[in-house]
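Usage

Read records sequentially. Each one opens with the input sequence:
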Amino acid sequence: MIDNSIGIEVVLHKGFLSMVFHITLRIMWPIVNLISLILSFVGLAVVYLISLQPKKRESKVGAKAWKQSKNLRTVGFFCETLGVINIILWIKIPIPKLDWKITQNPSIALIIALSLGIPCLIIMSIGVVQAGKESWEPHRHEILNHGLYRYVRHPQAITEFPLFAIIAFGVNSWFIFSILTLYTIIYLPIMKVVEENDLIRRFGDKYKAYQIETGAFFPKRMSKSKKLL
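and closes with the structure output:
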């Protein structure tokens, strides 16, 4: 009888510990996911901003600044990928008190997100192809001003960063959508200034002329020469 009672106590103890463990996981995983999401996008912002300034950093660390920029963009890509995974995981592991639904019908949010996201993805992809190595490694001697870049100076950025908020809309979360919308609104102007300051260091008046002719995020009224092209 004593042995049986001890066995029952052990089983109950293990069952209690297992229950506590699973409850803890259910509470912690959503928090871990949110922290990971925030850190991923902060990391993306920081490493990408540094990668945009090879000319400035060249005076401090020498020619290796250009290779470091390439490496930092690779790190930024992994941060971006992790952040997108965190957004999608919010579907399964939201924080209950922050799980503010955009609509009671998730299909509606998904359809709207796809209708906005697919054009952004297409334009971004075209920009990546036309930029070539510049997407991963800053150019030293050539201004990127062909293709989409004849009309907009930052076609990748204006389509890529809003995509994060669009994905959040697709997972039907006002909370994540609001965070990433604010992130985009704050980050894009900072990115533009940081990158273009370094481009002016590289290309001088030639880049300033390009700034005058071409809109940063949206096309300016096309000149006759651009219409003819």
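Summary fields computed downstream for this record:
- Residues 2-51 form the longest helix (50 residues).
- Confidence is low (pLDDT under 50) at residues 223-229.
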